Amino acid sequence: MAIDVYVRTIEADALASLLASRRPAELPFAILERVDALSCPARSEVIDPTLWPSGIAFGRDLEIRWQQDGAGFRVLWAGAAPGAGWAMVLDLSGATASQRRTYLWGPDNVILAAAPALGALAPGAGRAQLVSVEYRRAEDHQLVWVRHVAFEREDV
C-alpha cells in the first residue's frame, strides 16, 4: 500500500467526525496532548479535539496528526490518498521503510510523575513499546518521516 503524507485545515467538528469514522478499526491507538495532560485512550473512547488540541491517532495503515491552529486544526494524514480537499506534502514512494520499537515510560522515568494509562494496550508483563515505521531516502538514508503504527508489549 502506498503511504504518502497529506495536509488540510479543518474545523473541530470535521476532525471529530473524521476520527470517529475511522476509530477503532483503522485508528485503534492514540496519543493526546494538552498543556496539563497526556492521554492514550482505549480503542472505544471517543476523541474530542476541542479537549485535546494536539494529538496522533494511528494504526497499521493510517496515521492522523492534528494541531490546533486558531479556530481550526491543521491535520496531517499519512496513508493512502484520503480524497478531495487534501494536498500532498510528502511523497514517500521512493523511500525505504523500516520498523522500530521505542520503550515507553519505564520504571525509572523521571520526566513524568506517573505513567499514563495505555488504554488501547492489552494487559501483559512486558514493558510498553511504541511501534513506528521510519521512512528514509534511498539515495542517502536521510530520515524523511516517522509514522506510528501500534502500541505493543515487549516479548518477555
What does this structure look like?
The chain has one helix at residues 12-22, and strands at 4-10, 29-34, 37-39, 54-58, 63-69, 72-79, 87-91, 95-103, 128-137, 143-153. The protein has 156 residues and is mostly beta strands. The strands form 2 sheets. A 7-stranded antiparallel sheet has the order 3-2-4-5-6-1-7. Strands 8-9-10 form a 3-stranded antiparallel sheet, with no helix packed on it. Strand 9 and strand 10 form a beta hairpin. The longest helix is centred in the N-terminal third of the chain and has 11 residues, at 12-22. The model has no long low-confidence stretch (mean pLDDT 89).
How do you describe this structure in short?
The protein is built from one helix and ten strands; from the N terminus they run βαβββββββββ.
Q: Could you list some keywords that capture this structure?
A:
7% helix, three-stranded antiparallel β-sheet, single chain, 1 helix, 156 residues, globular, 10 strands, seven-stranded antiparallel β-sheet, 46% strand, mainly beta
Name the shape in a single word.
globular
> What integer value in Å does the Rg equal?
16 Å
| DSSP summary, beta strand count | 10
Mean pLDDT: 89
| Main sheet overview | 7 strands, antiparallel
Strand content: over 45%
Strand order of the largest sheet: 3-2-4-5-6-1-7
Report the order of strands and helices: EHEEEEEEEEE
Distance between the termini: 32 Å
* Helix/strand structural class: mainly beta
Helical content, roughly?
A: under 10%
Low-confidence stretches: none
Number of helices: 1
